[in-house]
Amino acid sequence: MPDRSLNRKASPLIHEVGHLVLPEPGVVLMDNGIPVYVMDFPGHEILKIEVVYRAGRPEEDKHLASRATARLVREGTASHTGAEIAEHIDFYGGSLHIPTNLDTANFLLFALHKYAAELIPVFAGLFQEPVFPADELETFKRTSIQELMVDLDKEEVLAYRRITELIYGENHPYGYNSTPADYAALTRDDLIRHFNHWYTPANCRIFVSGRVDAPVLQLLNQHFGQTQRQGRLLDVPPQIADYQPKKEHIKHAGSLQTAIKIGRRLFSRQHPDYNGVYVLNTILGGYFGSRLMMNVREKRGYTYNIYSTADSMLYAGCLYVATEVHTGKAGATIREIFSEMKRLRDTPVSTEELAMVRNYLLGMLLNGLDGPLNTSDVVKTLITDDLPLQAFDDLVHTIRTITPEQLLELANRYLQPEDFWTVTVGK
User: How do the domains of the chain map onto residue ranges?
Assistant: First the structure.
């Protein structure tokens, strides 16, 4: 029977997020030196293994070589075809994912603990002897070009491509954009060279979570820890060229809306101001109750969605605002975006608004610690960004203690209009 004492018209009470603790992983070194970060949750039967190679765009000798290599690693080895690998993983209830990442090549295997012995050897085999079949490469190139041509007809995609070119530079690993010619120019030798240079023990980290017992670690050492392949290490991080921010419009015939991207260059998560800017960006446009949402969407009705993001990679970062509006409202929308930045520069955030943002961000971090799979993602992100685990506690501390005066100072440092590029795409 339903509880008739409940008052469904009253909002639930808001409780402050309590103590947030990131479990510290164990670290096991394989025979060849590969570190394995272990988050053991004995009560779970699932197993998540993520293999991360520092083999992304900064390591490329040729455009798109990192993406193509990561995508085609699973398409066949000297022992098994890609179809056989996929069928084997599927038969034992496993799942293989290759998320896109600019800085690294990531490979995720989800499995049941009881099938670890059947799945880990096949998973590890992908990184021992991939053959990069020529026919699969041609299929990848053809499919990628087709998808790219579809994307290039979207205003939002064109605006994003251009804003990243302007922020980082057209030749920077984070700034260059894929073209049909880049895909067409890829060869099997490019992939083999990229693999041999960067898919090495020195460039590898493994993150394993769930039920991680001694037999699982023995399997990992047996199949990942014996490789002795020597490769290269990135000596000099890619440098960003100096550009003067400007406004730019790209004409796109037939557009019913105008895509807007307003962005500036920032820094990686290692910068001392990153945590404060993370909070500041949330207030500006980082959640549904943000300043931009309340003004541009709720008050003025110019758009369905508007947001800002503080994007950070290993060697650089950026902050940008994005939306799509009716062409006739583009100019007014841009003015309101810069108006909200000015408000943050001129007037301290109220205690009430800051309290709401604190609770939102702490709730998001709490959700990130929900279970072994999410927790391993937090640990993996810190480790691959070359950050200590203490960085999680530092972020929590900043969210809990940052003051309106500190946010005002950060806004005046990083929300000055002359530092932003403005890109519009439409009629």
Answer: 26-224, 247-426
